[in-house]
Each structure stands twice: as structure tokens, then as C-alpha cells.
Amino acid sequence: MHEEVHPEVFRRMAELAELHYEWSRRHAAAAELKRNSAGDYSVHHLDVDPPAGADDEFIRRAREIEGYDPDTGEYLG
Questions:
Q1: Which of 28, 40, 46, 69 is the most exposed place for a label (fewest CB within 10 A)?
Q2: What integer pLDDT is reported at residue 61 of this predicted model?
Q3: Taxonomically, which superkingdom (predicted)?
């Protein structure tokens, strides 16, 4: 049996997906690519390190979308 996804959850998931897409697009040129050295997985996977500060930017905005305070991470409801 499948439960319906609450419209607010669906909206937030869609907004997070859009945030990630735009954030990735903006920072792709400055990201450092390196091979992951963990066995066969490294053949198919690259690690990407975003430029300094980009992670913080993403986390702050994602917290807002999810209903948390962007600075403290406290749930706001």
C-alpha cells in the first residue's frame, strides 16, 4: 500500500530539486573534480568539491525551504 505524499512535502521536494539544479549550474565551472579511489566505484564516479562557501549557501537555502532557521537549523514549523 502506498501513502499519498502531502502537497507541502511534494512542493518542498520540488523546490529543493530546483535549488540543487541551479546551485550546481552556478558552481560547476569552479568545482574541483577528482576521482574517487574506492574500488570499482571510482571507475563510474567523480567526487566534486564545490568552491569555498558554496556549501554554506546551499545549506542555508535548503534549511529555509524545509522550514528551518538558516542560521541555527532550528525547526520553525
A1: 40
A2: 97
A3: Bacteria
